[in-house]
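Appendix B, Record 12. Input sequence as logged:
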Amino acid sequence: MPGRLTWRDASGTLRFVSVMTRDVSDVDAFVECQMPASIPLYRLVHFQVERPARGAGELPAVLQNGKVLSAIYRVGPYKTSTGTPQGYALRLLVEPTRKAVPAVAETDLDVRRAAAN
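Logged structural output:
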C-alpha cells in the first residue's frame, strides 16, 4: 500500500518521502522508500497511508483515519547504489486497545483472600 512519511530534520526543515508499506499491524509497520531517504534511528515521523488505499480491509483502523505519530525503531539494510536504507520499521505511537475485565463479586474476593491465608 502506498504511503508517506513526514518528519523534521536536525535543522528543523520539514521532509517527506513516499513509501510502500510492506507489513502492517496494529502497533507497527515496515515501509520501503520510493526515493533515497536517510532517516535516523529513533526519529519521530508522521506516517499515513495514501487516501485511495485507506479503505483496504486489512488495514488497521488507526491507519484508516490519517496521520499516525510513529518512531523509527529499526533501519533496514543499506542499498549499495545509494548508501541509504532500503526500508524502516515504524512503531506506531497509539494507545493500546483495552479489553473489558469482568467485575469480580465481593464474595469471590473474600474466597480468594481466605485461600491466600
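The longest helix spans residues 106-116.
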